[in-house]
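Memo to structure team: turn this sequence into structure tokens by end of day. - J.P.
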Amino acid sequence: MAVLIRVLSCVFAVLLMPLSALTAAVDTVPAGKRADEMCVNIAGIGAYFRSQGVATDGEYLYFSSKTTLYKTDITGKSCEALNLSAIPAELRDMGIKHIGGISYYGGFIYAGMEDSKVWKHPVVGVYSAESLEFIKYYELDSQTHTRGLPWVCVNPENGYLYAFDHSKTPEKILIYDVNDAMKPVGEVPLAETVKSVQGAEFYRGTLYAATNDETQAIYAVDVETGAVEKFADRNLNGGEGEGMTVVEKDGRPYIMAFNLGTLFVNTNLRYYPLEKQ
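Reply from structure team:
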């Protein structure tokens, strides 16, 4: 499968060269000041597999689309594993049809999953990070998560999984214990609404959340106090802000956040420095 994906990627790369040039040109017109230091434009089939969430274990990158999981090396170039049908039949029978933001912890990928527009079954899917094979799932309380589960994030320091109570207008952080069958362990009121979060990642104890709000901003959230501070505006020119993770590049930590391009045929991977030189 990995060989097939590499071949198809090469073929599409040639065929889509004009499209890549067009989408790159469109992206040069921002909606406002941008804070990203680098941007990688991916068009065609590569963008399809990178359209919802992203996570990393420091060695590999893991991407989600609405129905697939895709694993690459840390550069994002080499396909290491692919699950073309990552929503198993038992979840499809419940109406689950959307994989959102994902998180890596302890050799597993945790995925926010939902029955979009119905909102009866907020589900955390668990997958093998090695093979991307589906392992199990946990269904959370739909009365607590009142509008789906578009993302989840695990804090590697304590093994707790974090999510918001609402996808558009959240009021609190909800916390679960990954190592105790996803047992609820607490909630923290948010100091202010962080609208339309698409994905999140922890860095040094702070939860960074990438949104699709008016400026597709990234926020820093203190999960102990609920305090919220804007980290950066992405200021995309159309398209849609998607997920994020934290990677090291040239010895420096970066938020790697991505978005679907204005024409919805490409993905832009954007790098935001977390620390000043």
